[in-house]
Amino acid sequence: MQSITVNLKQRSYSIDIERGAISTFADRHSKMDQVSRWMIITQPNLVDDYGTLLLMSMKKVGLPCDLITVPCGESAKSISQIEKLYRQLLSNNCDRNTLLIALGGGVVGDVTGFVASTYMRGIKYIQFPTTLLAMIDSSIGGKTGVNLLEGKNLVGAIYQPKKVIIDPNLLDTLPKREKVSGFAEMLKYGLIRDKEFFRKISDGSLPNNLNDESLLEESIARSCKIKANIVATDEYESGLRRILNFGHTIGHAFETLTNDGVLRHGEAVAYGMLCSGYISFKKGLISKSEWNEIEGTLRKLSLPKFDIPDHDEILKTIRHDKKNYEGKLHFVLLDGIGNAITNDSLSDQDIVQSLEVL
Ligand SMILES: NC(=O)c1ccc[n+]([C@@H]2O[C@H](COP(=O)([O-])OP(=O)(O)OC[C@H]3O[C@@H](n4cnc5c(N)ncnc54)[C@H](O)[C@@H]3O)[C@@H](O)[C@H]2O)c1
Ligand SMILES: [Zn+2]
C-alpha cells in the first residue's frame, strides 16, 4: 500500500492507494475511534459492483452499516437532494458519531462532503473515489459543493475528510470517456507542476497508455502528491491553490454554456488548457516547441466536438466567476511547462483570441 499524507496539522489525513482496498476496508477500519454507525452514500449503478460488496463486508465484521443512493449526474448536487439525505440519515438513526463513506465519483464526493460538513454541525466522512477524476482530484482537499440554478458549486464548504481510500481496480468498469476526463486533470498536474510527469504520461496513445497497471498506479500517486502538497500549502485557496484552476476559467465557461452531458468536466478543462496554453505562447511565456507539445498532447485525447458558445457569453460567464474572487480574475498561465503562474490583468481580447485554437 502507498500512503500519501495531506498535511493540515490537526486536520491531516492519509490517501491510501491499494489494489483490492474495497475488500480489505472493513477489516482495516473496524476499530475506528468514536464511530458508532456507518453510512455508505453511492449511486444506483455502483451498488451491484461495489456498494453491496462494501456493505456486506462491513456487516460481516459486525459494523452497523447501511447504504443510500443519490441519482447520477449534476442534478444530485442540489439543495433538495441534500435535504433528502439529511432526512434519510435521521430516519436511519445516524447521530454525531456516524461516519459517511462517499463511494463514487466527484458528484457523490461533493454531496457527501457537504452533508458531512453540516449534518448535526459536522460529522466524519471518508472519500472512497471510484472515478479517475475523483481519485486524483475531487476527493482530495476538502472542497464540497452543490449547485444553484445560477451556477455550479455556488454553495459549499471546505471540510476535510478523515481519509481517502483509492482502489485502482475500481477503474476497470469506468467508461473510456470518464477515463479521458480524469486523465485531462492528470495532464494538468504535469503542466502546472511537473514537466517530467507531463512528458511521461503524454507518451503513446492517450489515455490507453494508462492500461499499463504500474504506470496507472504511479501516475495516480504522483497526481495525489502534487494535489496534497498544494492543498497543504494553501488550504483555503488564497494563493498557490489557485494554480489548480489552470484551464478551468475558460473550461468552466464551456461547461456552463453547453447543454448537460455535451462536455464532461475534464473534457471542458482540456479545451480550457488548450486556450490557456495558447495565451501563454502568445505572451511569450512558453516557446513554440512547448506549445506544439501541449497542443499535440491535448489533441491526442480525441475530445468530443462542441459548438463554441458566443464570445460575449463566454466573457460574461468568466466575469461572473471573477465576482467570486473579489473582483479579480486570477487567470492561470504557464511560464514554461511544469510552472504555472497567475496573471491578474488578462484582457477580454486575449481570451477571445485564444478561442481560435478550437
Ligand atoms: N470537490 C472538488 O475539489 C472537485 C474537483 C473537481 C470536480 N469536482 C466535481 O466532480 C464532479 C465530476 O466528477 P466525476 O467526473 O467523477 O463524475 P461523476 O461523479 O458524475 O461520475 C461519472 C459517472 O461515472 C459513474 N461511475 C463512477 N465510478 C464508476 C466506476 N468505477 N465504474 C463505472 N461507472 C462509474 C458514475 O455513476 C457517473 O455516472 C462535478 O460535479 C465537479 O464539479 C469537484
Ligand atoms: Zn477540475
Features:
single chain; globular; binds nicotinamide-adenine-dinucleotide; 7-stranded mixed sheet; 358 residues; alpha/beta; 13 helices; 11 strands; binds zinc ion; two-stranded antiparallel ribbon
Shape: globular
Rounded mean pLDDT is 95
Q: Structural class, from helix and strand content? A: alpha/beta
End-to-end gap: 41 Å
Question: What does this 3D model show about the protein?
Answer:
It is a single chain. This protein has helices at 21-29, 44-60, 79-91, 106-118, 132-138, 176-193, 195-202, 213-233, 248-257, 265-282, 288-299, 311-323, 348-354; strands at residues 2-6, 13-17, 37-42, 65-69, 98-104, 124-129, 143-148, 151-158, 163-166, 331-334, 340-343. The protein has 358 residues and is of the alpha/beta class. The strands form 3 sheets. Strands 1-2-9-6-5-3-4 form a 7-stranded mixed β-sheet, sandwiched between helices. Strand 10 and strand 11 form a beta hairpin. Helix 1 (21-29) crosses helix 2 (44-60). The chain binds nicotinamide-adenine-dinucleotide and zinc ion.
